[in-house]
Each structure stands twice: as structure tokens, then as C-alpha cells.
Amino acid sequence: MALARTPSLAERLFSESERVDAGRRRDPTPSLAARFAAKEAVMKALGVGLGHFALRDIEVMRSPSGAPSLRLHGAAAAEAAEQGVAGWRLSLSHTPRLAQAVAVAL
User: Fold this and answer.
1) Does 37 map to a domain?
2) 4, part of any domain
3) Which of residues 1 and 34 earns the better pLDDT score?
4) Are 18 and 60 in contact (CB under 8 A)?
5) 34-68: b or e for each residue (b if 16 or more CB lie within 10 Å)?
6) Which of 65, 73, 81, 105 is least enclosed by beta carbons within 10 angstroms?
7) Is the predicted pLDDT of residue 2 greater than 80, yes or no?
8) 3-state SS of the chain?
9) Cβ distance 59 to 69 under 8 Å?
10) Tens digits of per-residue pLDDT, 23-47?
């Protein structure tokens, strides 16, 4: 697993709040994998590829009900604003072996 081989990877990819939230689980890996999938889905929704901006510029948040939401920062926020994105809908799903996400730009 990449996180086990490269401990600094989580800090490069995820905000502190994302790491703390995932860390509340016995195994944080599936939660982090779903968040990574969400970050990639956001980039695809914006029509850009990996490397266009930092993955940490996309932050996956959870409401008290557990519903996922997005907060964009820096270059990701600028790209979304330039494209006229007014909001997002996000769906996450994961098992111990698979993670997926759908991000819809409004």
C-alpha cells in the first residue's frame, strides 16, 4: 500500500482535517482512498488532469449528518470560479478494497 510505503504521502495529498477525520476509523485507508477518488473526480469535472493544481487544494468535508461536501482552495477554487461553478454534489463509496466517487459541478 502506498501510504505504508511513503508515510509523508498522506500529508501531501490530504488536509489535516481530512487526515483527522479518516484517522477516527480503525483503518483510515478506505476513507482516504474515497477522498482521493473525490479529488480526481473534481479534476475530471473541471476538465483538467492530475497536476493542474495540488490535490490538497480540494478538501473533502463531512457534515454532522455524514454527507460529504467539497471545499476548494487556491488554484482549484480559481479554476472552478473561472468555469462558473456555483456548487458541487459529491457521492463517495468504499469497501476495504475499492473506493469510488462522483463529483458533479453545478
Assistant:
1) yes
2) no
3) 34
4) yes
5) bbbbbbbbbbebbeeeeeebebbbbbbeeeeeeeb
6) 65
7) no
8) CHHHHCCCHHHHHCCHHHHHHHHCCCCCHHHHHHHHHHHHHHHHHCCCCCCCCCHHHEEEEECCCCCEEEEECHHHHHHHHHCCCCCEEEEEEECCCCEEEEEEEC
9) no
10) 898 988 999 999 999 999 999 999 9
Structural domain harbouring 18: 9-105
Does a structural domain hold residue 1?
Answer: no
Here the CATH number for the domain that contains residue 97 is 3.90.470.20
Query: Residue 21 corresponds to which cell in the numbers above?
Result: 477525520
- Residues 66-94: tens digit of each pLDDT: 899 999 999 999 999 999 999 999 999 99
C-alpha cell at 65: 449528518
Structural domain contains residue 20: yes
Number of structural domains (the chain) is 1
Residues 92 and 30 sit within 8 Å (Cβ to Cβ): no
